[in-house]
Amino acid sequence: MASSPRPHYLQWTTVAPVLAFLLLLATWHRDLPWPVVALVACFLAVSVVAAVHHAELIAHRVGEPYGSLVLAVAVTIIEVALIVTLMADGGDKSAGLARDTVFAAVMITCNGILGLSILVGALKYRVAVFNAEGTGAAFGAIATLATLSLVLPTFTTSQPGPQFSTTQLVFAATASIVIYGLFVSTLTVRHRDYFLPVTPAGEIVDPMDDHSEPPTLRQTMTSVALLSVALVSVVGLAKGVSPTIERGVAAADLPNAVVGVVIALLVLLPESIAAVRAAVRNRVQISLNLALGSALASIGLTIPAVAVASTWLSGPLELGLGANHMILLALTVAVGTLTVIPKRATPLQGGVHLAILGAYLVLAVSP
């Protein structure tokens, strides 16, 4: 006789986020010994997988591209809170944390998640197909916001160092909010079909057709609550182990920018897993929605948040990139444009994007 299904409240995707949140409360603002750090890392990983599960359930209910937007915005809002908190605790040594984390998010999403999704989709289905109209619009918005927020501060002269003056920072924050708002409007209202998956023949596919019975409203609301708990746990536990990460970076005599890279890698794990799973189902457009939507949310929400926070934070706010990072950003924009235009990609394009990410990670460790 087949065993009856386990009650919803006893499933690991329900229990794990709650236990992770309790662990977060027990370890918040405490100096953690190595065994506890290892325990925190395990719960962090489990919470990431649980977050992906609940995000996909929500996506089943609301459809695409709303599902991708929910995960991207939820993760980014908590990421912003983490950045501001670390900046408040770090003083002058965290002056470049926002820049390092945002740029790391751009490189990881536009090269890592995008490249891995294309590689997985193309290897399994010969070519990875997507909608160039939506993907190109999102990529253009990312290139604009990254240039306005991360490149221009290096060349302005009103403030010493790679910093904006107050007027310039207000403009960058306003532009970020406006462009991100226009992107969300395009994604969800005016041109939703530009962000839906397509077949090799170019026909639009509604992802709702892929699923059987969507979850009920009660199940969806439960997943929304558990997704929030899981994401808070992920970012909070990441903050809890950040002192250990910082000590490890210092002990290894690595640049302080590596801390921003590690934070971005941890925070973007849910999107990475969800994007690869979508690519395996031949829904590469969903993968690109997750990748580029996360990059846009990271810039569009982080820059305004740190601009507001800079009014009460005592340390400086350095946003300008160095020469090697500007070269990698320009290469990412050029290669990404060539990837998007044909509306389909082979494993070669995926490998090229991953190589750019590899170069960024090597230069982060050995500038």
TrEMBL record:
NADP listed as a keyword: no
Recorded GO CC terms: plasma membrane
Membrane association type: Multi-pass membrane protein
GO molecular function, one term: sodium:proton antiporter activity
Keywords noted in UniProt: Membrane, Transmembrane, Transmembrane helix
Predominant location category: membrane
Bilayer-crossing regions: 9-28, 34-54, 66-87, 102-123, 135-156, 168-189, 224-245, 257-276, 288-313, 319-341, 348-366
Domain Sodium/calcium exchanger membrane region: 36-188, 223-364
Keyword check for Ribonucleoprotein: no
Signal sequence interval, chain numbering: none
PANTHER family recorded: SODIUM-POTASSIUM/PROTON ANTIPORTER CHAA (PTHR37958), SODIUM-POTASSIUM_PROTON ANTIPORTER CHAA (PTHR37958:SF1)
Protein name, per record: Putative calcium/proton antiporter
Organism of this sequence: Kitasatospora setae (strain ATCC 33774 / DSM 43861 / JCM 3304 / KCC A-0304 / NBRC 14216 / KM-6054) (Streptomyces setae)
